Amino acid sequence: MPDNAVFYHAAYAAAVVIYGGYVISLVVRSRRTRARERRQMQRGLAREVNSEL
Amino acid sequence: MTTPAPTEDRRSIDWLLTIAVLAVTATFVRAIFFTPAEARQGLAQKIFYVHAPSAFIALYVAFGIVAVSGALYLWLRDERLDRIAASAAEVGVVYMTVVLITGPMWGKPVWGTWWTWDARLTLTLFLWFVFLGYLILRGAIDDHGTRARYSAVLGVLGALLVPFIHLSVYLFRTLHPMPIVLKPGHPSLPNSMLATFAMSFVSFALLFVALLRARYRLAARVDALVAEEEFEPAPMPNLRAEPIR
Question: Which value does ipTM take for this structure?
Fold first, then answer.
């Protein structure tokens, strides 16, 4: 049997890095969106308070 | 408008994604520790359990969804279809990137070369470029309707490469192997390898569904934010009374 384990280890590592990196990018983008939603909600509340005053 | 309220689904833990990641991890453990190595190709054959399911899902599922959703968007103009197409394209490009990286890693020890410009490999690379262009196009256009329309056309046209890629191993002389599982008659894999392949196929399909769902939800939240920001009143200018002269 040929000794080529290094290629298979590298391929599995590459797959983990790419799929894992994409999952992390989704989590980061989701957190950024959540922060944007919070800021928008605060602006909305501020407008409501101002209009009541 | 079909955009959901921005408060929809803000959970940080996605249960489906968690299950999918665990399933892929279990597949890796089975492939590495509990599946025999192929006698002639050696351990490099195990790359097949990552490469083949990723290729199948990217080609037939992800880019198929992009084409069907894009065509339906051009007909119905429902922005949910545009969101589905964009999400499937992004996840499809990720899967196809794995295919294009793991393929040469199998090719070098088995073929003796990292890459060859034969029909299957070249068309697959072109498809990857087309859908990378699709994502860049979406990022370059601000107007929602124009972006959705242009990208739907590109998605439909890009997916036309898929049947050529599928048939390339039959139509042209190519180094790429013929299908060994999805073919008429019995698969040419022993049962232990076939079970690992089935497990990897199911787990990568589950991961695709989880990533598509997460990406779609993110797109829906971003669209809702953009829609609300467009309707926000502009801030009042600071009015200052000029002294009367």
Answer: 0.90
